[in-house]
Request: fold
Amino acid sequence: MTNTIRITSKEQFKTEVAQGMSVIDFYADRCGPCKMLAPIMEELQADNASKGVKILKVNVDENPDLAAEFGVSSIPTVFFSKNGKIVEGMVGANPKSVYQEKIDSYLAEGVGAAPENADQEHMDSHLAA
Reply:
């Protein structure tokens, strides 16, 4: 099974999200819903690795600056990124099917296309610093 990618620095984060599609899970070890979401993220990685999708895990206790930069105030928070651009975010643990539908939808659009409702200018500023 392909493992999720544990983010340990802002530089690593920027490198990992720069190309292709990423699902970014902001979590904490102390968070019950985050623990419930962890195996779902592992399954999503295994199911989607061949499609070029990466599942990134960002521990908010170890990376508070990155969490603050993205405005993460509740966990788990999951963002979807395409070619370095955040295209959507959702708070709370959801069933695997919810995340898979989002992945499939964004892949169907083509990795380079961003949905019209994305606040691109705001999200681009997160990765520019």
User: Anything to note?
Assistant: Residues 5-128 form a domain with the Glutaredoxin fold (CATH 3.40.30.10). Confidence is low (pLDDT under 50) at residues 112-124.
